[in-house]
Amino acid sequence: MVAIAASLTLSGAPAAHAGMPSIPGTPSAPGMPSAETLPQDLTLTAVTPPVATATAGVTVTGTIRSTRGATYSDPEIRIVRPKAGIVTRDDVTRWAQATDPVANGTELARATIPAQVGPGAPATFTMALTPTALRLTRSSGVVPIDIQLVTRAGVQASLHSFVGWQRSPETTGLSISWLVPLTLDADPQLHAARADTRAPGWARAVGPDSRIARLLAATADTTTGYAVDPALLGPTLPTLPSATSTSTSTGASTGTIADTARARVKDSLAAQRNAIVGPEEVASRSSLADALSAAATTHPVWALPRGDLDLAALFDAGVDLTSPAIVRWLTDLTAPDPLLTAVVHAGTGSASVLTHVAWPLDGRLPVGREAQVHTAYGQWGPDVLLVSTHETNVDPEVTPQAAARTPQGLPVLRWDDTLGQIASRVRSSADVALAGQEFLAQTATLWAQAPQQARSMVVTLPRDFDTDPAAFTAFRQLTDSSPFAKVGRVDDALDSARAANAEFVDPVLPVAATPPTPTVRAVIDAELIQRLAGERATVAGYLGLMTTPSTALIRWWDLVHEVAGVRWRAQPSSHAELVAELDSGVATLDGSLVIAEQTTNFLADEGVLLVTVVNDLDVPVDGIQVNLAPTNPRMHVVEPATPLRIGAHSKGTARVRLAASAQGLVPIDAWLSYGEGQRIGPTTRITVRAAPPGGWLYVVGGVVVGALVLAGAIQALRRPRREMPGVVLDPIQPTPEEPVVVPIDHPEAHSAASPGPASHPASSAPDT
Known about the structure:
The chain is built from 19 helices and 28 strands. It is of the alpha/beta class. It is 30% helix and 23% strand. It is elongated. The longest helix is centred in the C-terminal third of the chain and has 24 residues, at 695-718.
């Protein structure tokens, strides 16, 4: 064994604890303590540099602490290398997960820490490992190390890590790209009915102190792409201008495009303000829009479906994706979002189309799923499909590159499950060193699978990932400096997928040696999907009738697209409450604009039926059309009613011209529609008693009238003529009257005596 002298540093300041998951490792050797009984009293601070060379070793630093109340007097630190080396990626994973101390290995370094380590008195250690001590015979590779805390009572703690090894610089064709999802948290407060309740939730979700803000800060100085849920920027109503309506013409200057996009962002955010979306909520989203615009200048931004639609649950539900109602619902979710498009254009100054990404949570691509993806996205794409390497790799010994293309031409990018799981453990500075060294070990074994082959790997993070920005920045600086892989861009990986041969087929996977990480249960199923599609149609119908949508409609329109998102898997109870509110609200809405039931008599061959429409909404409706459909041939519609405009909480009357061809009871189905015949509200039954007079009434009436005329004529002819006696009447002359003259008011008359009774003298001739 080789023992290397170590330089020691003592510290009385507390250090952060690296919490590792308790995963059973290999069995302990006889006389060695079990991993389950060992406290987590060792943390790794850094391996500097992370990769040793033939001329430069590494320095291992860490912290000792006492978590069980015991005091370690002058403890000893040993660094031991196991006999088995690291060759494959599975070797890296097994060594990292095992926590049992190595009993029979090669000791690389040993040092005594002259300190009393207690619960409140940690100590740090620094140990140097020379290239001679590492003694790796290969030109490149990974050295597993076990850092042990030893006292007179034996091994008290064990920590497994890695040291990279590269004898001389070598070129690498391995490229690693990063894609970070920016999605909302499963917080029902984001969809509350009151502005003062929603505002704190949105501040937590997208404000300056939010998880999203921390992710943007953590990746600001790194080569990272973002998969963005458009719902981060708030609800988009059907009346919002489309992304193409204000796009600039080809050849427009960068400044013009950016300025136009900024104006669209400002106008769109301002349009969100209403009774339930207050200024504080809009301010939170405005700050996020500014941050995303700034990030888009250096980071690729890809668009997820609105609400981060749970595609895996949608595909597994077995619903008919070609149903008209579901197609319209999916079109809303997958269509380009005008606000997100404007935000990106404001940052890039480019009118290029956003990349649309389909990201099923399960990462599978079974037979038939590609067709489901195309059907779900319809005319909008997608541009790329993300799948899991673990779920689609038919050869567990070799990791395929990320970029591929299906025989039907759909670009595919595989995300590397193992690399993503390692990165997701970086939550604080205490996690950087351990996770970083394991990440480097994985890239080293990936490179060794095909050293001369150009390959791309994609690393994704969980949708709910949160981290300390400084810690994750340090982690990326460590991993990006790996000599085994270079940093790539997801846009370049997508270009490789588009150019790839049609090599990706629906795999028939063998039984996995290790089962995939179980995902939480989906919260949407076939019944809910169909119901949401129907409720979307109902809300869209009412929105189409209103020039000023009600706040209730805004909320229901938002929810009908948000409750199908992936994030609700983490909060099934909150999801159930929101769905119940949505169902109740839409049911109430559907009964707020109805045709009143009535029973009436129709006593003509053709006439007008008056139909009453009741609007119990808080806003007026315009363009509402009354439709009648008699259920039997006794009656038919001659002329439809003119569209109505009805005020809030008011009634309107439609005049429908009908014709009756026979007597009897005629049930008539009545419903409302708008636009080009889109139905809205329930169907009402109107009952009409038809009693048309028929032709016999006109014949009999004509005969009776003719008889009366004839009888009158005969009587007139038979009556003798009477002569009038000659009488001369004296003419009546009119009685002459004196003209009325309005007296003229003279000023001097006011001083004279009052005149006597008024008279009406004849007018004098005017002076000449």
